[in-house]
Amino acid sequence: MDGKSVVDAVWILVLIITAWKDGHEKRIPDMLTIAVVLCAFFRLLFLTKEEMLLCFAGMGVSLLLFFVILFCAPGAFGGGDIKLSAGNGLYLGMENWLRSFAVAVFASGIFILYQVISGKETKRQEIAFGPFLCVGAIVIKTLEGIL
Question: What is the 3-state secondary structure (H, E, C) of 49-85?
Fold first, then answer.
């Protein structure tokens, strides 16, 4: 197993822990987002300069998108979601972050629809978005060579 694969494995493990923690407590501890960012910085060691720029662009696009969403709908996301998403953007790069965010939004929409139809939640019920960000990132990273 090479260094990049080790970093990928650690990052996925951190995302699994983050998804579990946010799913149960609706809170993402700073230590977990720091771990995601540290994994991203270690991953940068294995990339070309062009790939590094795309990773920083992924973080920037993530922050910009969340800023716009929060400007239009204050309180729509928590700070942990924003930091986690920025860390994932740095890890995945711009294109893969956009794909992972699309997967997260789609998956959360399906989850909310199921919850409302089954009567478990109302339309205005808050959900933890972190688990969906984690699943989207893991799915896209896993399918990276295919997409």
Answer: HHHHHHHHHHHHHHHHHHHHHHHHCCCCCCHHHHHHH
With beta carbons less than 8 A apart as the criterion, state whether 91 and 54 touch: no
For 129, the token pair is: 């978005």
> How big, in percent rounded to 5, are the helix, strand and coil portions of the chain?
75, 0, 25
For residue 146, the surrounding DSSP H or E stretch is none
- As given in the structure block, the two tokens for residue 19 are 């998804």
Closest by Cα among 93, 76, 79 to 137: 93
Q: Which helix (H) or strand (E) holds 132?
A: helix 130-142
Contacts 24+ apart (CB under 8 A), 108-115: 108/132
**What is the number of other CB atoms lying within 10 angstroms of the CB of residue 101?**
24
* Cα(19)–Cα(10) distance, integer angstroms: 14
* Measured distance CA(115)–CA(135) in Å, rounded: 18
Helix (H, G, I), strand (E, B) or coil at 10: helix
Q: What is the pLDDT of residues 19-66, one digit of tens each?
A: 999 999 999 999 999 999 999 999 999 999 999 999 999 999 999 999
